[in-house]
Write a structure and sequence with these properties.
The protein is mainly α. The protein has a single domain, classed as Four Helix Bundle (Hemerythrin (Met), subunit A). Helices cover 55% and strands 3% of the residues. It has a two-stranded antiparallel sheet with strand order 1-2. The longest helix has 24 residues. It starts with 12 loop residues before the first helix and ends in a 17-residue tail after the last helix. The relative contact order is 0.17. This is Maleylpyruvate isomerase.
């Protein structure tokens, strides 16, 4: 996997904002191509229909909006009330009508984008706490959202693949995942393939690599 070994790609804040825009457009276009009955079909995530997936992405925008509100006002506002409530909300979303889910997704995505536009440079530096209880700067929120919309556009199962995602995004994504998984250059030396296939493998998604060990789900 020479394309990743020994490299440390970087991302800027502007990169992340651009990827949110591009990823949201990709996912929205995929959703717009679904008939109401298609929402009940299986996504590429085990045990989840497209309704589960769409509810998750919509709820994620609302949750990240909470972090943006925290950065804007200084008043603590966590992403979710609890993991149990988050999971219950996703299950409830799977029972909602398709048009209702689509409207929620569009509203939440639009509100998150507007909220991010309001933040000042100083507010972007405020600390927030993620759902995984990791303290980060608010400026990381766009990257968190970019991952969600791009990867779940693939997970929707409508023909979008990792090859449809921007190379600069995939390089940063792959580097982040390998770091979080604790994979060294030695661990990756026996794996070779195109960047989209390698990124899909690292993310625990279907891929075309031969002989690559299964890593399990991520995100």
């Amino acid at each position: 996997m020479s394309l990743l070994i020994g490299t440390t790609p970087t991302r800027t804040f502007d990169d992340s904002r651009r990827w949110v825009t591009e990823g949201t457009a990709l996912l929205t276009g995929a959703i717009d191509g679904l008939a109401p009955a298609d929402y009940d079909g299986d996504s590429q995530l085990p045990g989840w229909t497209r309704k589960h997936l769409l509810g998750h992405v919509a709820a994620n925008a609302d949750a990240l909006g909470n972090l943006i509100s925290w950065a804007e006002t200084g008043v603590e506002k966590r992403m979710y009330a609890s993991t149990e409530q988050r999971n219950a909300d996703i299950e409830a979303a799977a029972t909602r009508p398709a048009e209702e889910l689509r409207a929620w997704y569009l509203r939440s995505a639009g509100e998150l984008d507007a909220a991010m536009d309001r933040l000042t440079a100083e507010q972007w530096e405020h600390e927030i706490i993620t759902a995984q209880l990791v303290t980060r700067q608010a400026s990381d929120v766009p990257w968190m959202r970019a991952r969600e919309v791009f990867i779940h556009a693939v997970d929707l199962g409508v023909g979008i693949t990792f090859a449809d995602l921007p190379d600069d995004f995939l390089l940063v994504l792959a580097d982040e995942i390998r770091t979080k998984r604790g994979l060294s250059d030695d661990d990756l030396s026996g794996v070779s393939g195109t960047l989209p296939e390698v990124a899909a493998w690292l993310a625990g998604r279907p891929h075309g690599l031969v002989g690559a060990p299964e890593l399990g789900p991520w995100l």
